[in-house]
Amino acid sequence: MCFRSFVVNINVPRVPFPSQSSNSLRNWILGIILTIILPFGTNKWGPLSKLKNEVDTVVETIEQITEVVEKVAEVVDKVAEDIADDLPEGGRFRKAVVLIENVAEQTAKDAHLLEDIIHKVQGVEEDVESIVESLIGEANKPSKEIKNGKSLSKL
């Protein structure tokens, strides 16, 4: 017995990707997040809140580390600048100190940028939490009215 494979050419209409506008992209991201978070709306917040607490702890630790790195880099930059001023022009030591000064400046800038990103992520987290809380509140309203004996037709 011989088996042959047949290739079937099916023209499936392509679904266009969402436009790259910020509103559309934000709505897609919000929809994905809500799809993941809303099933936890009943008595299952335990694992999610534990994960959130762990993530918050890690973010706070990273924020503290970036602040320390930024301060240390600024001090190293100042010290290297003072030392470079006392060394002769064109010498190897001066070049090495100037290199250290440049690395310290870049490290301070990078630490500051990372700190800004952390603050923005925390702001977005607060926005998502408020949206989720309001959606859960709206989702619980009809069920409370049914329990109280009110009909949904009055809504």
Automatic annotation (TrEMBL):
Name of the featured protein: Uncharacterized protein
